[in-house]
Amino acid sequence: MRKIIIILSFMAVANLCQAQGRLDGKVAIITGASRGIGVDIAKLFTEEGATIVITGRSEKTLMDVAETIQKSGGKVDYVVSDVSQSEDSKKVADFTLKKIGKIDILVHNAARYDDLGRIDVLSEKSWHEIIHTNLDGTFYAVKSVLPAMKKQKYGRIVFTSSISGPRVGLPGASSYTASKSGMNGFMKSIAIELAKHHITVNAVEPGNILTPELERVLGQDEINNRIKAVPMNRLGTGREVAYASLFLASDEAEYITGQSIIVDGGQTLPETHHGTY
Questions:
Q1: C-alpha distances in angstroms, 104 versus 35, 111, 175, 223, 228?
Q2: What is the 3-state secondary structure (H, E, C) of 127-174?
Q3: Residue 122: how many CB atoms within 10 A of its CB?
Q4: Is the pLDDT confidence value at 1 over 80?
Q5: b/e map 243-270, b = 16+ CB within 10 Å
Q6: Biggest distance spanned by C-alpha atoms of the chain
Q7: What is the total count of domains within the chain?
Q8: SS3 264
Q9: What is the CATH number of the domain that holds 259?
Q10: Mean of the per-residue pLDDT values for the chain?
Q11: Any domain includes 269
């Protein structure tokens, strides 16, 4: 009997680790899916049965991601798009409707995190460019999918926000933190407006997530320094962010709207980061 119980326990764990078709039959647009967290979201969504359209500014990287997903049996198309341009967001939505016929899910992941600086040296041009891409781009992405979602009386909108801004300050990145705080405020307001149409709007707030880009920009010494602020003693993975996005995009989150899931290994919990945990 004990052996049978142990075997059944292993089977239960194995099933949890396998795709369960949580997005079977769903069509998702995923912006900023040519690198980093967006790639992990795209891969996981197709593993869970979604047909996806991925966007980004680089056709080559989009082609590479699409090819990888297709080799694994996923259904994916791509559109070269700049989220800071409203016409591009409309183009993506039109392509998806013409090619696949509906839009069930929008995961707005695209954002800029460059050309930053402390307030005394931050230029007006840099400020406006970050706000335009990260905040105006969110507005454009949502507006582009709303007609289709309202018509079918169903939709899941998921933003990739950040702990930077909504939860904590980040010196030298005031434009970025302002854009993410604005995103969360926008989310809460439109979640109320869209609830009657059975459209939910939620966000995932990642902390420090170990991506190839982060490794390249920061270097190992700074990564080690950031790890010290995380009670779990490591940085997160894009896959862990993707699982939170998956939940909010699934029907399991049908009664959740205007909310955020923090994925930060406990980074925002301590009163102080001095000492050890």
A1: 23, 22, 31, 37, 40
A2: HHHHHHHHHHHHHHHHHHHHHHHHHHCCEEEEEECCCECCCECCCCCH
A3: 17
A4: no
A5: bbbbbbbbeebeeebbebbbbbbebbee
A6: 70
A7: 1
A8: coil
A9: 3.40.50.720
A10: 92
A11: no
pLDDT tens for 70-99 read 999 999 999 999 999 999 999 999 999 999
For residue 14, being part of any structural domain is answered with no
Domain that holds residue 49: 23-263
pTM score, two decimals?
0.91
| Secondary element (H or E) of residue 203 | strand 199-206
Examine the residue annotation and report whether 176 is marked as an active-site residue of this protein. yes
Report CA-CA distances (Å) from 45 to 38, 175, 178, 272: 11, 30, 29, 37
And the tokens for 52?
């996806």
Q: Which one from 176, 243, 255, 277 is the annotated catalytic residue?
A: 176
**Contact call for residues 159 and 108 (beta carbons, < 8 A):** yes
Instruction: Answer yes or no: is 78 within a domain.
Output: yes
Residue 7 confidence class, pLDDT cut points 50, 70, 90? very low
The token pair that represents 38 in the structure block: 């967006």
